[in-house]
Batch of 2 targets.
Target 1
Amino acid sequence: MRVTIFGTGYVGLVTGTCLAEVGNDVVCVDVDANKIARLERGEIPIYEPGLEPLVRANHASGHLRFTTDAASAIAHAQVIFIAVGTPPDEDGSADLSHVLTVARTIGANLARHAVVVNKSTVPVGTADAVRAAIAAELAARGANVEFDVVSNPEFLKEGDAVQDCLRPDRIVIGADSARAIDALRTLYAPFNRNHERIVLMDVRSAELTKYAANAMLATKISFMNEIANIAEQVGADVEQVRKGIGSDPRIGYHFIYPGAGYGGSCFPKDVKALEHTARAHAYEPRLLSAVEAVNAAQKRKLFALVERHFGGALRGRTIAVWGLAFKPNTDDMREAPSRTLLEQLWAAGAKVRAYDPEAAGEAARIFGERADLVLCDQQYAALEGADALVIVTEWKAFRSPDFERIRASLGHAVVFDGRNIFDPKAVEGAGLAYYGIGRGRSI
Ligand code: NAD
């Protein structure tokens, strides 16, 4: 099919590439001319495992094209995806300005029927707003063109995005038109071969499904962080508790890892946006508020441990940080717990030497040149001249380090394990003090 995708970020670029990979003719549009120029040259603006070879191969075969020319991209399409950002507004609601700009652009250019598919995460009722924006533009130029608007929320995970897109565990489609459902069934047929993955529903339910999924996952994380904090107070080890409860299939092992709090471009903003939606409909979402409050406190947890260890005297100290991305296998630092830690360390007068396998460029972009930050290109280089090591992101490369080398490098033999990736006995056996999250003896 002929597909156009507005927005070449994590969602748009991966979706466009995977649709091209199965033979569709895909045009990706972005307002960021620099991004489009880089993609044209075969440079991938984000780090996403497996994406680069797929983009290059499909670009070379002509199945995947990049442009800033929205009009020609709309003329090309049978199906038009909206995959632009929906960042939080000041009041926590989702900012729909990019989505509605695209809708107006579609209305201003549409010359024949197309199915408009909203893939951005948007509040309930947005499909109606998109439909109205397109219709208003069509009416303004006296054009009589039919179109459908469908909700098709995206569930890919950064770091696994290509695999999630090629082998989705579900494809949620919210639609009220048989013509649109047919088009999406055809488009998704290559990803829906072994068993039925398409979950058809009405548009509003599809819009809410995305928020419900992210709010549920955020709730699991905050729940476990709360248990970790209780474990710390009562002298229990949350890692043993985690295994003890995960073995119950009603609970399961997934997403019950305590840590330094959730971050990223989705959970924080989506929990806030769902809270906002609830309040706009006169419902007080008490659980969601608690999920957020626990997370905000958890993001400050590592600093609290470091500060307590050094008796509040952090001025002039240097702290080594392993991991800046909000999770492994991505370079994304949006709302990352590392940012909270760094800001707190700097405010307390400490310097930071940081290493991340992929996010150094992003960190340099966010923080710029500053005397109290050294971005290292090797993980052990971050330890040079440092007083302590803090693990913030659980990259695989950090899991079995040379603890003797860490002890020999650090001024003070102490490790703060913000993701509980180490066996405390192994760390202590090397002569290092160990602090984890909710592991009893951290107090
Ligand atoms: P992103 O910020 O990485 O990319 C958005 C892109 O849209 C940018 O390149 C921007 O330049 C472009 N854009 C903005 N206005 C435009 C316009 N008028 N025309 C064309 N392009 C325009 O965002 P993302 O992470 O890909 O997320 C996109 C949406 O998908 C959001 O609603 C997000 O909540 C949702 N989502 C994200 C993920 C994720 O893991 N990142 C997962 C599921 C859903």
Note: The chain has a mean pLDDT of 97.
Target 2
Amino acid sequence: LLPRARASQESIFARMSRLAARYGAVNLGQGFPSDAPPAFLLEAARGAVGRLDQYAPPSGLPALRDAIGADLGVDGADVVVTSGATEALNVLALSLYGPREDGTGDEVLMLEPVFDVYVPQARLAGATPVTVALRLDPGPGGGWRLDLGALRGAVTPRTRALLLNTPHNPTGAVFTRAELEEVVALAREHDLWIVSDEVYDELYFGAPPVALRTLAPERTFTVGSAGKRLEATGWRVGWIACPPGSGGRLAGQIAGIRQQGSFCAPTPLQAAVAAALPVARAGGFYAGLRQEYAGRMALLAGGLEALGVAVYRPGGTYFLTAHLGAAAPDAGRLVESGGVAAIPLEAFAQAHAAPPGLVRLAFCKSRADIALALERLSAVL
Ligand code: GLN
């Protein structure tokens, strides 16, 4: 084993997509849409390739930093463009926390079920991930809730940061303003950074998610994703919005670390995203997406419920969690012989075991694929 390989193994998403392709399964695992990105994005890219083909500054094309700033209500000077939100999260891990002089690591609080990159990224940065379990209230109207008492109880003198995602992947939970205000109070009390992964900020089905930077601008780094917003996850264009007021100095330092990764995100795609962000906002693209995905969520959730499966309907993201039942084939057998790829919640477990049979299913797939998945599930459940 390579010296640092223990900290990070093959991603569950990559693995399930590989198995889905091998066995011809419907892929409700990895969260990428089956629809093409919007024409206005693709046209902007066609106009940029062949014209903007060389490096961009590590902090990003100025036009894109300004477009992101305008969209989020922050100054473009406080924005750093990254190669996807995954790199944004990694750069923040490397920038904000690491090993401590006493041989331990800075502790980073995160919510469990935990999105798969948070733990390995913290470890690779030399920090110590500490997960706090969400509560799962069963039954109708139930769902995943923030356990503020547990969060508070997990803070130690070594805690440096709080890393959370709202809307939350993998559960689809959207935390309320009241919950986030308590999170902010905790962060202020212990002087913690907040890293807020908000890649699904435009994808919600009830109350819109509250951006943590609006509650705690002085300590919040917001992570966002053009891939999620504009249905182009392979483009690898994401961003970090830093706390304001440093005159761009925080962004400059983060860009200094970010350049050691991919140096810059693909220049023509940055230009295309810069052109597309205001068009998406003004043209109601996100509202259309929400409406479409609400329909597909209802199709999948309703179909599962008709099969007797307990579903936790999400407030946001394009994932739902469902309890296929302890007797259901495990995710490995389901993809191999059941013809459906799902992500088992165990893949997001760290310190707290997930109940067997609990899976995350993506509904950013075509209605035909969702119907086919339901048909195949009905044969094995
Ligand atoms: N965010 C996506 C998901 O949760 C996948 C991320 C990835 O595969 N890099 O499925």
Note: The chain has a mean pLDDT of 96.
